[in-house]
Amino acid sequence: MTQTISVIRGDGIGPEIMDATLKVLDTMNLGLQYEFVDAGLAALESSGELIPQTTLDSIARNKIALKSPLTTPVGEGFTSINVTLRKKFDLYANVRPAKSFPNTKSRFPTGVDLITIRENTEGLYIGDGQTVSADGEIATSTSRVTHKGAERVVRYAFELAKRTGRRKVTIVHKANILKSTSGLFLKTAREVAAAYPEIECNEMIVDNTCMQLVMRPEQFDVIVTTNLFGDILSDLCAGLVGGLGLAPGANIGDDTAIFEAVHGSAPDIAGKGIANPCALLLAAAQMLDHLGLPDRATALREAIVHTLEAKDNLTPDLGGTGTTQSFAEAIAKRLV
């Protein structure tokens, strides 16, 4: 297989964890070719734009991107880079797995294996209709949910469950209060669920979902929900299994996909060589699944697990004394 992917090295610790991830991928001899493009602060400094047109053109051409964390400057006039990319390429499904890993600082070292699927292009999170009154006393934002948006993300969740052998989908909502927006999402989800009788489906209000995840996360398999709820729940799920350093994410559209580490750029440790590359490596495994290489994706995940089990060159956040590169090398040697 030969596949060119757009690679965004990112800001802060981004270049370090990207170099480590590409080192591991190269060990696997997958035939991947890399087209390096800029976004974030690096792009702003070199081109005056957070997302240059050359970067957008590269992603549009290759259809696959692997992205390190980016920094959106704080201040007026700067729109979230991630939100912009999701809108530009209509990446409607945000897919965030959370799985227990050995030797992590986690409340649940075993028993958690779930996926949160978040609608990525609608809802309150995208910030439509934001206004503040002239006197600064009233702020308003609009939440917009469509039948099309709800239908395709819920269908994606059921298709993923069917394809991967998962047995249950939980529809998370707040339709008891948000009767229009969340109500439409729930109504549409029920319509989709009826086409998948072989997959168990249950419904849960978002606040109860938070409590249940903390108490008994093993009851969940696939969660599908709206944008803002999914943003919050997916980070909660990451907290169950050791934090964002073990949290990958995929942004999926009909013909384009961007895979990323979902944590921040961590400028406080940038350049120190101690950043944990696992989140981006796990995102790369999601990318391999997407490319039709599930066996190689499984091999990569197993190599990460075996390295964690052996406590081989783990980075400081995992209780070790290894570096970003030595940890990646320990994973890579298990793939040779």
UniProtKB/TrEMBL annotation:
EC identifiers of the protein: 1.1.1.41
Protein name, as recorded: Isocitrate dehydrogenase
Enzyme kind, highest EC tier: oxidoreductase
Record-linked InterPro entries: IsoCit/isopropylmalate_DH_CS, IsoPropMal-DH-like_dom
One Pfam short name: Iso_dh
GO MF: isocitrate dehydrogenase (NAD+) activity
Keywords noted in UniProt: Oxidoreductase
Domain of life: Bacteria
Family: Belongs to the isocitrate and isopropylmalate dehydrogenases family.
SUPFAM superfamilies named among the record's database cross-references: Isocitrate/Isopropylmalate dehydrogenase-like (SSF53659)
Occurrences of domain Isopropylmalate dehydrogenase-like (ranges): 4-331
